[in-house]
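User: Predict the structure for this protein chain, please.
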Amino acid sequence: MKKILLAVVACLLLSACNLEKDEKGYFLASNYCTATINGKEYIDRESYALPMLGHSPRSEWYSYYFWENNVAVDSVGMLIIHTYLEPAKGNNDPTEYWLKLYIKDFRYDEPLDGQEYTFTALSLEAPYVPLDTLARRMYREDVSLALFDVGDIGEMAYIPASGTIRFSCSDEADRTWQDNAWLDADITLRATGDTPIDFRGHLYAP
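Assistant: Here is the predicted structure, written as structure tokens:
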């Protein structure tokens, strides 16, 4: 029995040697986001070794009901994409970027390939806005939102950006998000003002 267990452990170790690791030696999951932000390279790639940090990048479905002119309104459903980008290898800039994409009227029951959505940079009334307040604003103004949170500008606050996300062809391009397909997308965003951001990235995430 001990010989069998040792053989199994040896096989697992050999398999692990072939798994891709990051520069810290952690085994990596397949979901990732890479981006060029203001000319520098960033990455978010979840590690199997650090589950306590939460799953990022990731997507989730949000549906919220509220009252508008005495009528109960469904937010029509919204896809939210989360990613947390750190400097990639060779980038010595300590800046970190949190990015949340709120996609209104996401067509989750249609093939993903070719779907494209536009983000509008709306000015926000407060540094942080609750999700239900965002959903109400998006419904009223019929927009999708892209919000950055930048880690080295003092008091952290949402920075709205304009741009697009386009879902591209992948191994599961004929599947819908409703069928648990992975999201394969190119993202282009720009924020102006006191903290300008030029973002061009690629996302592959559940």
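Helices lie at 2-17, 131-141.
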